Amino acid sequence: MGHEYAVRLVSLLTENRNEENREAMENYMRNQFQFFGIKTPERNALMREFLKENGKPPVEELTEIVRTLWDQPQRECQYAAMTLLDKQAKQLTREHLPLLEEMVLTKSWWDTVDHISPHLAGRIHEKENADDYLEKWIQAEDFWLNRTSILHQLRYKEKTDESRLFRYILMHNESKEFFIQKAIGWALREYSKTNPEAVRKFIESENLAPLSKREGLKHIKRLEKVK
User: Fold this and answer.
1) 149, 41: one domain
2) Both 85 and 113 in a single domain?
3) Which InterPro entries does the annotation name (predicted)?
4) Domain's final residue, options 56, 91, 126
5) Do residues 188 and 159 touch, judged by C-beta distance below 8 A?
6) Cβ neighbour number for residue 61 with a 10 Å cutoff
7) Domain limits at 49?
8) CATH number for the domain including 78?
9) Which of these, 121, 114, 191, lies nearest to 160 by C-alpha position?
10) Burial bucket for residue 140 (CB in 10 Å: 0-12, 13-18, 19+)
């Protein structure tokens, strides 16, 4: 089945399945994934309990552990995999980027991609240059990889590479894909908290989708109401 550490974790999640919650959780995710029916607070408590008993996984075994969890049909296993990566975030390096790419491309949906992008891929790029991966992803045919590149700077604030952000957006500003239009707006909204004038100027001068504009201007409009 895979790495023993992951097998133990899957067993814990299986033992705590909740049929009453399962259907609602599967419906919320448009029935794309199976669920154990374990809500976030309970899952977090189980993860704390598991980590207390088993310790954090060794970094050198992390890839195999994550892959074992990612292969499971229940969505909580993917969430658990991301939690384990978060716990070792300081130890993640460029060597983990192929794993993150694999995660983005498989069992893809906003709930996993939107965590991987800023909290894992973005964090690695902050420490080590990951230009080659970011450029590869923004040019890929898969829109989830495009979204990952667009969103990787969400946490950067004043460290945001503005030219990269705007360039990546303009590479996809004509996309009809909802998740790309939404990502563009989200990235602009976050950056507007650091540099509202640059974002306003960019939105006014470029031909963005109405959804992207609306999302991108949300924070700026809130600031205007306060004034």
Assistant:
1) no
2) no
3) ARM-type_fold, DNA_alkylation
4) 91
5) no
6) 13
7) 1-91
8) 1.25.10.90
9) 191
10) middle
Question: What are the pLDDT digits (tens) for 142-195?
Answer: 999 999 999 999 999 999 999 999 999 999 999 999 999 999 999 999 999 999
Looking at the chain, the whole-number percentage of residues with pLDDT higher than 70 is 99
Same domain, 39 and 56: yes
CB-CB neighbours of 27 under 10 Å: 10
Tokens representing 34 are 């199976």
Same domain, 147 and 196: yes
Please count the structural domains in the chain: 2
- In the numeric block, the tokens 């939690």 are attached to 83
Distance CA 35, CA 75 (A): 5
Which pTM value belongs to this model? 0.95
Residues 158, 154, 147, 206: what is their CA dihedral angle, to the nearest 10 degrees? -50
